[in-house]
């Protein structure tokens, strides 16, 4: 695993400066993501590009235009053991964590059965946010940076804090 991490860091060092000079879109990151997914076989089960510093596992349904956000936002961790459903046009900032299942206390091999995480359409998930098992976010929800989302929220609101609460309605 250390070798894969070293290769990933090397790819980041090589391709980030190239992508800044060629295009405002991170072309170098797409190339690095391709190498990591297709050659090193990290996150290879997914047909969309995932940033090479991110880890994705489990059953995940992703809407239209979400893959672009996953390709660019590094450091995300997505654990979908109970499933994750992400609506169209949802944006993810770096280092977002989504955990859809907790392990049974005292037995790390078994997962608690809960509902999936459901994120509506046109949501924006801020940097370093954590979304916990069974959470449902309505459409057009903005999650503030660093929020810990442990319960569900309705459509069109801004949430933030630890634990997350509604800051205002949109």
Layout of SSEs?
Elements: H1 2-22, H2 27-39, E1 55-62, H3 67-72, E2 77-86, E3 91-92, E4 97-99, E5 103-104, E6 107-111, E7 117-119, E8 124-125, E9 130-131, E10 136-137, E11 142-143, E12 148-149, E13 157-160, E14 165-169
Parallel strand pairs: 1-2, 2-4, 2-7, 3-8, 4-9, 7-10, 8-11, 9-12, 11-13
Antiparallel strand pairs: 5-6, 13-14
Helix pairs in contact: 1-2
Describe what you observe in this structure.
- The chain has 170 residues and is α/β, with parallel strands linked by helices.
- The chain folds into two domains: 1-42; 55-169, UDP N-Acetylglucosamine Acyltransferase, domain 1 (3 Solenoid), CATH 2.160.10.10.
- It has three helices and 14 strands.
- Helix 1 packs antiparallel against helix 2 (27-39).
- The radius of gyration is 16 Å and the shape is globular.
- The N and C termini lie far apart (44 Å).
Task: Provide a quick synopsis of the model.
By secondary structure, the protein is of the alpha/beta class. 24% of the residues lie in helices and 31% in strands. The protein folds into two domains: 1-42; 55-169, 3 Solenoid (UDP N-Acetylglucosamine Acyltransferase, domain 1).
